[in-house]
Amino acid sequence: MPQQVAAAAVIYAKDMLRVGKFYEAIAGLAVTEAEAGHIVLEANGFQLTIVAMPAHVAAGVEVANPPLRREGTPVKLVHFVPGIAAIREQVANLGGQLNPADREWQFQGARVCDGHDPEGNVFQLRERAP
Q1: CA 53 to CA 37: how far, in whole Å?
Q2: Is residue 79 part of a domain?
Q3: Containing domain of residue 96, as a range?
Q4: pTM for this one?
Q5: Of 9, 16, 39, 106, which one has the fewest beta carbons inside 10 Å?
Q6: For the chain, how many structural domains are there in total?
Q7: With b meaning 16 or more CB within 10 Å and e meaning fewer, what string describes 38-63?
């Protein structure tokens, strides 16, 4: 049975499995459900559902290599991580990209860095100060 969920988000993906594996590794989320058209990942009261785009929509979506950042959306997912520097290489190995370390900043007592996933969806990592 899934844990108690306090917040959730949905990402539509051309390659649902790749995007799901990315957030599973980067955000420390665990797969709680996997079906033909979606994957549900959860941790600490947060649920992220990755939904496969319908074929007719996916046909019109081009994902460049490396992916271009989709900055035109008004939503940015934020994931809290133990250390941005430690996860930087893993983000790249999984097809995403973080801004360079010199573009990190402080916000509400946390070190912050924006990036994008393998399909260009923008996210933010926050590393809490010790």
Answers
A1: 8
A2: yes
A3: 7-54+66-128
A4: 0.88
A5: 106
A6: 1
A7: bbbbbeeebbbbbbbbeeeebeeeeb
Q: Is 129 exposed, middle or buried (0-12, 13-18, 19+ CB in 10 A)?
A: exposed
DSSP β-bridge partners for residue 97: 116
* Residue 42 within a domain: yes
Predicted confidence pLDDT, tens digits, the chain (130 residues): 456 888 999 999 999 999 999 999 999 999 999 999 999 999 999 999 999 999 999 999 899 988 999 888 888 999 999 999 999 999 999 999 999 999 999 999 999 999 999 999 999 999 987 7
Secondary structure class of 94 (helix, strand, coil): coil
**Residues in contact with 120: Cβ distance below 8 Å, sequence separation at least 6, in sequence order:** 63, 64, 67, 68, 69, 70
Q: Please report whether residue 112 resides in a domain.
A: yes
Contact call for residues 31 and 39 (beta carbons, < 8 A):
yes
CA distance 2 to 108: 30
Q: Token pair for residue 32?
A: 């709680």
At 18, which helix (H) or strand (E)?
A: helix 16-26
